[in-house]
Amino acid sequence: MRLIHRWTAVCVLFALAGLGAADPVAGQPPAGGFPIYGLICDRDPGIVHPAEGPFPPEGCEGQAGIKMVVETGDARPIGSCMTDGEGFCTVDAPFDSVVIVRQMTDTVRGNYAPTRNPIMTWNYTEFAGAQFFNIPVQRVESTPIPRAATLRIHSRVCPPGFAGTDFGAACHDTAPGYEQTLFLNGPAYRTATVDESGNAAFNDVPPGDYTLQPGLPESTARLVTF
Fold it and tell me: From CA 146, how far away is CA 49, in angstroms rounded?
């Protein structure tokens, strides 16, 4: 009788445990481990699923410490997880429902960004999950902003119709218009005075296209790119 009593007690405990496990919350689909991957790749591998071929794909490896946040399709929080050394973590997400997974980009080490973020998917099979492939961010070299500088002008007397570049041979080395004023118009307006050597300097000139107008009678304006 004593042995029968003990056996009956054990059977009752198993029955109670089984009833508790098979009694889901009314109206809620059962939850399961929803797999998430956070991988660092040297290029975009495209759409690759863990159940189809080698995984991680070639050129990709997991990174630990990437935080993933999961919510339902109507933006109700489900949970979050942090990837391990293989770039893997799981969250208990409701089965047969839409889930949205967001990768927290500030938790990724290095200059990488995900090809998709967030990922919306349907957790309806054992193969459901979310895979984040983080590829190098293209760096755009910034062009330094040019600074203002001094534009120097040297004045010479050239024969009528001169259009060459050999000023030293074709033009007189005299300094015409001593103390005449030169005008520079463009992104900025500047004036300068010709000295006894035929030189003039416009100070603090920002880059751009300018029109140089000598202050001599019948002089011709010239376009200067600086």
Answer: 49
